Amino acid sequence: MTPKNILYAQSGGPTPVINATACGVIQAAKSAGFLGVYAALNGIYGVLHENLVDVLKESETNIEYLKHTPGAAFGSCRYKLPSLEEDTAPYERILQVMKAHDIGYFFYNGGGDSHDTIHKISTYCQHNNYPLTCIGLPKTIDNDLAITDNSPGFGSVAKYIATTTQEISLDLASMALTSTKVFILEVMGRHAGWIAASSALGKNTPTHAPHILLLPEVAFLAAVKESVDSVGYCFICASEGIRHDDGRLVSETGDTDAFGHHQLGGLAPKLAHLIKEKLDYKYHWAVSDYCQRAASHAASLTDVTQAYALGETAVKQALSGLNDVMLTIQRTSSNPYAWTIGTASLGDVANREICIPNDMIKPNGFEVTDACLDYLRPFIQGEVSLPYKNGLPVYARLNCKPISKKLSPYDGRQ
Amino acid sequence: MTPKNILYAQSGGPTPVINATACGVIQAAKSAGFLGVYAALNGIYGVLHENLVDVLKESETNIEYLKHTPGAAFGSCRYKLPSLEEDTAPYERILQVMKAHDIGYFFYNGGGDSHDTIHKISTYCQHNNYPLTCIGLPKTIDNDLAITDNSPGFGSVAKYIATTTQEISLDLASMALTSTKVFILEVMGRHAGWIAASSALGKNTPTHAPHILLLPEVAFLAAVKESVDSVGYCFICASEGIRHDDGRLVSETGDTDAFGHHQLGGLAPKLAHLIKEKLDYKYHWAVSDYCQRAASHAASLTDVTQAYALGETAVKQALSGLNDVMLTIQRTSSNPYAWTIGTASLGDVANREICIPNDMIKPNGFEVTDACLDYLRPFIQGEVSLPYKNGLPVYARLNCKPISKKLSPYDGRQ
User: Where are the strands (E) in A58-190, listed by range?
Assistant: First the structure.
């Protein structure tokens, strides 16, 4: 068997397990006997600039260590391609790079924007009769991708946030009598509240934290006072994506990225000042930001397993003729939890955000239903075991040996 | 043997291992055959209000689980006693509570302020010929206590911050080409930079994170630009205690606690806005706040071991006649690291803050020396293994069975 070469690339914000998917792709590609297994550095940007590296030159230990290495080991990007109607030049360049390196299989690991990108590339290559198998591999901590039951990355962040919530609430309970009464934990998730909802996974009684989930923006000060009056303190888990009545994001900074998405962050201190001003409680707040999405030391074993399986399956299915799809996680049973890998057409996944449905949020707006927690709970099961040296985790440190360029430099136009 | 009873209490901000010290005291007290082993709820506040609980009524599993339970399991407090010259009434009340419950040994687990408190109590009881053995047990994540080589709690926070720094830096490196170039991690530590310094424990080459430690406030924007120019990105670990030239804390909120300490926090967004305004780099920031000091899931085994040993030793030494001291960690060897437990007189420890000495900070002001890292490294060695259920750690959930009160309610005056 002499298959064409494989190209793998990573896109969008890293997750604690995006490299586990890379590991799955690479180990399956090696098993299948591919002679060329390449990765593009910094996603589609690296394809355009022909910045490819030879993955077969990495040590087996380094590849195995990808399973617990945070960040995106081959570099990621936020880079928006124009539509095919606007400008075909970048697509022509991508096609040239694929041809120059005899790429037959392109695996793109990313969120909704990335599946839009790979869908456009697939369409362009088909129109130009270049046989490129394009498979999208889902990843996002926000868990907002369509069709798939969940997205790798989310389970580990849910586990980290649920654990941190329990830890902080014990700290807060210790101090509340004479000191801090309100704690606000700001979490990511953009316009979807899934990460905030996962804060409640350790809540076994009504008095346990979190006392308030800020999913949509509602008048929450009365709920804060009620919690402090009844429990003695109040733990608030606030999603960065909550909005004012007029639709503006509370945490909007005014900056936007390449896709026009607003940069979020900084909600917690705004809420804290409001609580101090209106209720005069002593508060503390934390913004978990990259801490949560890089926390491979606290990853969910279920999440790592699914992320790896997606990468491994992508190679096997591509060899069986699957093309122009994103792989999904399909839940086949909730109790006990069981799952399999399915497919979704790229066009159905791209640019859609799946938020928490209204019937999973309690009428008060500050809590999620048992059905929501039942949906979330399987994703945080199981703990990882990491190699440690000198008290710190040992990560993959890839060599990223460059593949010789065969084309002229990319000038952004051809 | 019919010793008098033991009273244990916790004070100040919790650490990931303050309950390991409680576990040491309790298990040693049970071994020694004490018939009354009590804990005061919420530190000295609980002593004044006679809120005592019977520790011997807790299950052995619950006591053992204290080793990995965050928060202060018996409640903590920020509560300042007046000086003996100002008002002896609270001390008279404390003496009455000690007498009423036949307390012969008082173990107070706290930071600098707490050792001031226990020193005053010890002095008052001695003047009134009540034989109360008073032993202070150090705990603070800030590592700023005098005489002891380190304080339990610090090692685990150092491990958490060093791990988080490595994790986030891999995330940041992934994104820097087309997105975030600067990351700011705000850490605790008050006026001492030890926690910020520990961010550098995983820095193996000059290009590794952290690129800038903000210990004192210095003009740092040029250093940010230099890092982005040379490495591609910049990871800043900023201590909450940095100051303006005029001595004001940059992160001061205007609020103070019972000891007159300023509430700190919120430095990271201020620095981020400055970087955006002056250098126009895309940034992200996190404020770790209680996340770091409650992170028992990521605790240092060395830290847990020392915290437990302090509690255990306190009971043994008290029975041997030791009194009016704080137990310390004494380093007997650096390579290999070896330690033993020593003592310091309470008066020498109270109200002193040990900051990073100037000769452990490099001339540029943004890095610590190898000598500083050599001092810090032993504290983060070893990992803990926690019981998990349903994907989350299982903590001690104490019953806290109240001891019947024998005195009239505390009215704040007698």
Answer: 103-110, 133-138, 182-187
pLDDT digits (tens, 9 = 90+) for B126-176: 999 999 999 999 999 999 999 999 999 999 999 999 999 999 999 999 999
B window 59-78, beta carbon within 8 A of A: 69-73, 75-78
Residue type at B411 in one-letter notation: D
How many CB atoms lie under 10 A from the CB of residue A334?
Answer: 12
Q: Model confidence over B28-45: pLDDT tens digits?
A: 999 999 999 999 999 999
Taking Cα atoms as reference points, which of B28, B303, B261, B251 lies closest to residue B141? B303
Q: Assign 3-class secondary structure to chain B.
A: CCCCEEEEEECCCCCCCHHHHHHHHHHHHHHCCCCCEEEECCHHHHHHCCCEEEHHHCCHHHHHHHHHCCCCCCCCCCCCCCCCCCCCHHHHHHHHHHHHCCEEEEEEEECHHHHHHHHHHHHHHHHCCCCCEEEEEECECCCCCCCCCCCCEHHHHHHHHHHHHHHHHHHHHHHCCCCCCEEEEEECCCCCCHHHHHHHHHCCCCCCCCCEEECCCCCCHHHHHHHHHHHCCEEEEEECCCECCCCCECCCCCCECCCCCECCCCHHHHHHHHHHHHHCCCEEEEECHHHHHCCHHHCEHHHHHHHHHHHHHHHHHHHCCCCCEEEEEEEEEECCEEEEEEEEEHHHHCCCCCCCCHHHECCCCCCECHHHHHHHHHHHCCECCCCEECCEECCCCCCCCECCCCCCCCCCCC
Q: How far does the CA of residue A15 sit from the closest CA of chain B (Å)?
A: 8
Rounded to an integer, what distance in angstroms lies between the CA atom of residue B75 and that of residue B66? 13
Mind listing the pLDDT tens digit for each residue in A19-72? 999 999 999 999 999 999 999 999 999 999 999 999 999 999 999 999 999 999
Give the pLDDT confidence of A245-298 residue by residue, as tens digits: 777 777 766 666 666 666 666 789 889 988 988 999 999 999 988 888 889 899
Give the integer Cα–Cα distance in Å for B302 and B379.
Answer: 6
Band of the pLDDT at B2, cuts 50, 70, 90?
very low
Highest mean pLDDT among A20-29, A350-359, B109-118: A20-29
Q: Is B285 on the interface with A (CB under 8 A)?
A: yes
Closest CA relative to residue B72, chosen from B12, B14, B138: B14
pTM (2 d.p.): 0.91
**Positive or negative torsion for Cα A190, A193, A194, A196:** positive
The residue with tokens 């790798």 is A152
Inter-chain CB proximity B170 and A257 less than 8 Å: no
Q: Is B369 on the interface with A (CB under 8 A)?
A: no
CA distance B263 to chain A (A): 9
Q: Is residue B106 scored above 90 in pLDDT?
A: yes
Q: How far is CA B205 from the centre of its chain?
A: 30
Domains defined along chain B, listed by start: 5-152+298-352+384-393 (3.40.50.450), 155-296+362-380 (3.40.50.460)
What angle in degrees, to the nearest 10, is found between the helix axes of B267-279 and B221-231?
Answer: 70
Annotated catalytic residue within A113, A116, A142, A144: A142
Element holding A8 (H helix, E strand): strand A5-10
Active site residue A246: no
Give the C-alpha distances (Å, rounded to integers) separating A52 from A75, A102, A306. Answer: 11, 13, 26
Interchain proximity A71–B287, CB inside 8 Å: no
Q: Among the options B113, B116, B142, B303, which is catalytic?
A: B142
Choose the closest CB to B71 out of A170, A269, A285: A170
Instruction: Give the DSSP H or E segment for A236.
Output: strand A234-239
Say whether B159 and A391 touch across the interface (CB within 8 A): yes
Segment 300-319 of chain A within 8 Å of chain B by CB: 300
